Amino acid sequence: MIEEHIKQIEQKLGVNKVLIGEKVKERYEHIWEMDKPLCAKAVVFPSTTQDVSDILTICHKYHQPIVVHGGLTNLTGSTETNADELVICMEKMNVIEELDLSSRTITVQSGVVLETIHQEVEKENLLFPMSFGAQGSAQIGGVIATNAGGLRVFRYGMTRNLILGLEVVLADGTIISSLKKIIKDNSGYDLKQLFIGSEGTLGVITKAILRLQQKPKSRNSAFVAMNDFENVVSFLKFIDEGLAGTLSGYELLWERNFKAMTNPSTNISKPLSYGYKYYVLIESLGSNHEQDQQRLESLLEEALMAKLILDAALAQSVQHTELFWRIREDVDILVSQCNNVQNFDVSLPVSEIGTYVDTVFNILNKIPEIDNFFAHGHVADGNIHFLISKSNNSTELIDKINNIIYTPLTGLGGSVSAEHGIGIHKKPYLKFCRSNEEIKLMQSLKTALDSRGILNRDKILNHQ
Amino acid sequence: MIEEHIKQIEQKLGVNKVLIGEKVKERYEHIWEMDKPLCAKAVVFPSTTQDVSDILTICHKYHQPIVVHGGLTNLTGSTETNADELVICMEKMNVIEELDLSSRTITVQSGVVLETIHQEVEKENLLFPMSFGAQGSAQIGGVIATNAGGLRVFRYGMTRNLILGLEVVLADGTIISSLKKIIKDNSGYDLKQLFIGSEGTLGVITKAILRLQQKPKSRNSAFVAMNDFENVVSFLKFIDEGLAGTLSGYELLWERNFKAMTNPSTNISKPLSYGYKYYVLIESLGSNHEQDQQRLESLLEEALMAKLILDAALAQSVQHTELFWRIREDVDILVSQCNNVQNFDVSLPVSEIGTYVDTVFNILNKIPEIDNFFAHGHVADGNIHFLISKSNNSTELIDKINNIIYTPLTGLGGSVSAEHGIGIHKKPYLKFCRSNEEIKLMQSLKTALDSRGILNRDKILNHQ
Fold first, then answer.
1. Contacts of residue B418 in chain A, CB cutoff 8 Å?
2. What is the pLDDT of residue A347?
3. Domain with residues A218-332, CATH architecture
4. Which CATH architecture has domain B96-214?
5. Coil, strand or helix: which one is B155?
6. Which residue ranges does the record assign to the FAD-binding PCMH-type domain (chains A, B) (predicted)?
7. Does domain A338-422+430-437 have CATH number 3.40.50.300?
8. Cα A316 to Cα A314: distance, rounded to the nearest angstrom
């Protein structure tokens, strides 16, 4: 028996856009990072904003909760579904509507894959700076809904900073179309800010206009080493000032990461010798490779003389640069050295990171079930990732580790999620970094925009 | 007879923090840009966040509408009051609480004047990039509440991009303290985004944590000229790519502005000859004056060869640079050449600006009551300011001119306010750039956060 409202959706959209019952399980037997087939009442495939509006109008009327599926690369359970929920799959809304070279903007439907956007704009010598590991699968709607971060936030900002226009469908089917190409707009409330980073709980993103940059002509990278965290901070200020606007990456690895990434089994040779506490990978994106390299080299010499850094290696070729970045980015190598891996993406004020990580490492070292752990991060943004390898996946052990990582953040003014969001997995820890008043205000917003709680129910906040 | 709730506020805060009746008029006989004494039931002077919370708790209970006063430099009537309203004056909340050199942040109460912040951080070789004409009076609370723009938005962003943490008191007195020093935080909704740019209608800002930058070591400026608007756009892309991250200003003047600013009466000599349609002032903020100058010079030569620009003048000294910038910034010179001046701060996609301004100029030329007009703007941000000189200040003429400027923006995807906000004056024109659905959603947010409509009532949206 098909439920009345699913039938209505079929009538509106056509049967080829609706999948029900066993067909859902057949199609979704294998989903990345999900170890079981998809469980949902139905999956619908809108191809227009009007389709999304029609679906939500019906779902709102019938109190039908929905979950939006993009590239399914979220790490906090934001796209998890249950048998009572309906999935809106955005894969048919994958049209690039316009690449405007004068305004340097691209208008895309929300199901377009991030990497497709990169490829499209690069043809025109432009750059969409948002870049992270899962970009080959992640769809731009999800990138926006989670306010993704990634590798170039220090220079270009989080996703929030890269969005000029947004089209969203509200819970009751209302289409909010704020599709402008302008950088400055103070005509009333900036509504798009509500939806960016709200993990699909306030509206369904259908289109976006993204701001593009000129593609930098040169990329220069270097590894440096230091033993005092104070120098990690001082050198950041020094190199930021010296590179004047071109610094785009400042990535920190603790020695145990650096060693794990460059041990003989990885086939990556180490650019600097072992024995330092901290290794920092810096990147400048400029306009003239030779001049930029000279500038970077003379800054590194100056920093060595001043003992801000203890050693430095400049990438001398494109291959070299790629190798340097694999040491930071190829997280699979670390994961392959872990069992039952548990990962984190906390943030805290830059000045506090050194002591915080030392303390966490000391505690982790004393727990027999933990056999290995790593830390690296976008340190200029105050963002640290931990990977923890452990003997089992018991709830007790997971909670214990969560508490070790999260508890100190409250006093330090940190966040339990710099990038990945709250979803389901981090809900119990939201109160570690947000006050009761803040959570209550979030709840009021949720109620104001989605009175029946049909949008991504129970994600971030508990359904009331 | 003092009203009961004003008495309660006096009891809570102490009589020295409350001004009533004739004393209000005495103290506020002269307010910048207001031609009459302040009209209000009372003025209160909180010195702590708790004071603000106490005031709002009482005002909420008694349905007492309030208006927040900062530096009173707003241009759209956002701080206008009437005899039924209570003014919360923030001047006593003027403490800089912390300058954190490691995290490169400054924590300030909302009554701190913008220029004071500049002076404080410059001592430490740091920069708070928000900069505009009224910075000697404007308070940071107002800067944030209006999401101010200014001269360096292209590189550093609007105020929204410069705020890490915010403390706000809601209409009912609830304190929302999101005072974090972190750049990345995806733990639930980013509540501060609601208050930034909402012109005091959703909450009263009491404190903020601002992100600072290293102060650039060198500043290089140049004037260039062109006749085709297409080249204004192409040269922007060219110079943005060539200056790779250091381009921080790209300001356009139409010839009539350039002439008005450099005619003999102004004592500013013209850096380029007359006769071109467009004059662009560019600025790069870098780390090495000589190298940056060389780079800029060779880029200008290349652009001249390619006929992207027709003439160029590089500032050769600090004095020179200041003079160049006076041509753009010293708006008083233009105002002194205007009668009954009416000004605008629209934005639209960069590619549309040339045709749009031509059209507007043609229409303005045909109206006998208009004796002069100017246009200049932050063209890289799509933001154009008009100054219009006219024979009288009749409502009919003002409306007529508003319609000339605003009507084309609807079709072009522009905004009636890039920077200044809506306040009271632009309320009738909000619908020119925001849909009914958007305005309805703004109204829902207002109701959700301020159910009794006591915060800056009738600003942006009509009280319901």
1. 182, 184-186
2. 97
3. 2-Layer Sandwich (3.30)
4. 2-Layer Sandwich (3.30)
5. helix
6. 36-215
7. no
8. 6
Q: What is the 3-state secondary structure (H, E, C) of B361-382?
A: HHHHHCCCCEEEEEEEEEHHHC
Residue in B241, B417, B449 nearest the CB of A187 = B417
Q: What is the DSSP string of B285-308?
A: EES-HHHHHHHHHHHHHHHHHTTS
CATH number of B338-420: 3.30.70.2740
Q: What percent of chain B has pLDDT over 90?
A: 91
| pLDDT digit string, tens, across residues B277-312 | 999 999 999 999 999 999 999 999 999 999 999 999
Chain A contacts of B291, Cβ < 8 Å?
Answer: 291, 295
Residue A87 identity = V
Q: Is A344 exposed, middle or buried (0-12, 13-18, 19+ CB in 10 A)?
A: buried
Contact partners, residue B377, CB within 8 Å, separation at least 6: B251, B252, B353, B383, B384, B385
| Residue-wise pLDDT tens digits, B353-367 | 999 999 999 999 999
What whole-number distance in Å separates Cα of residue A213 and Cα of residue A207? 20
Range 218-277 of B in CB contact (< 8 A) with A: 218, 233, 237, 240-246, 248
Q: What are phi and psi of B381, to 5 degrees?
A: -95, 0
Q: Is the ipTM of this complex over 0.90?
A: yes
What share of chain B has pLDDT > 70, as a percent? Answer: 98
Whether residues B186 and A194 touch (CB distance < 8 A) is answered with no
Sites in chain A below the pLDDT cut of 70: 29-35
Element (H, E) at A193: helix A192-195
